[in-house]
Amino acid sequence: MASVDGSAIRSFFDLLYGESVSDSSQLVLWSSRDKRSNWVSSAEEGAAIAAKGAALSDLYYGVCLQDYALAKKERERRTGTPGMAFARGYASTVACIPGLWLDLDIAGDGHEKKGLPRSRADAWKIVEALPFKPSLVVATGGGFHIYWLFREPWTIETDEERHRAGACIRGWQTLAIDAALQMGLTVDATHDLSRVLRPVGTLNNKYGAPVVVDGGDSIQYNPSDFEDWAV
Question: What is the signed CA dihedral for 199, 148, 94, 154, rounded to 10 degrees?
């Protein structure tokens, strides 16, 4: 029976963020069981909390690190309360981006949407239509998360940089969506900077499957490599 792999979770967070997780640039972990969030200021702490939470229910992480102070102010502005236990962060409060991503669901019992790739081979045709090879491929049990990681996490300091980052991920995913359409396939848009995904080392309880590394070329990129397709 599949089990949570705490060391794999830690290695995954280290790969994405290096030393970027901090008090001001926090990693957000979210549980589907109670809809609660944990805001953590180190990869070590994040891996420990993720391992404990993943043993109880599906566990997700915010791909982009969040500026805690900004997110708290935004939470209060939107809800009237500064409490962060049920806040996952916002696109407008992103502090650090490890790379670009794509969520490719595979058709099956858990996915009823029409036009989804029916196999890894079908999904890979979409990936191969893109200009750059992925750094990392993660099998989630119900599909794949594809990552194009940066040489260094992109620290966001201004709203202009957030806009640039949003334009890069939106443009990159638009390429994938358009490529899929030409093949008669469907890819969901998941380009919001507050997106949560499943971390490596956790479990997909819907399928009883571990979330594991399934390939990639360990290639790293600069944010500027993707700006030709920014929208």
Answer: 120
Distance CA 204, CA 208 (A): 6
Give the whole-angstrom CA distance, residue 58 versus residue 201.
11
Tens digit of each residue's pLDDT (9 = 90 or more) over 52-81: 999 999 999 999 999 999 999 999 999 998
Q: What is the pLDDT of residues 133-176, one digit of tens each?
A: 999 999 999 899 999 999 999 999 999 999 999 999 999 999 99
Contact 101/146 with Cβ under 8 angstroms? yes
C-alpha 34/C-alpha 14 separation (Å) is 26
pLDDT band at 220 (very low <50, low <70, confident <90, very high): very high
The answer to whether the CB of 177 falls within 8 A of the CB of 119 is no
3 state DSSP class of 231: coil
Q: Is the dihedral of CA 51, 52, 57, 63 positive or negative?
A: negative
CB 167 within 8 A of CB 230: yes
Cα distance between residue 16 and residue 156, in whole Å: 15
8 A C-beta contact, residue 28 and residue 38 = yes
Map residue 15 onto helix, strand or coil: helix
- C-alpha to C-alpha distance for 195 and 162, rounded to whole angstroms: 14
The residues facing 197 across adjacent strands are: 61
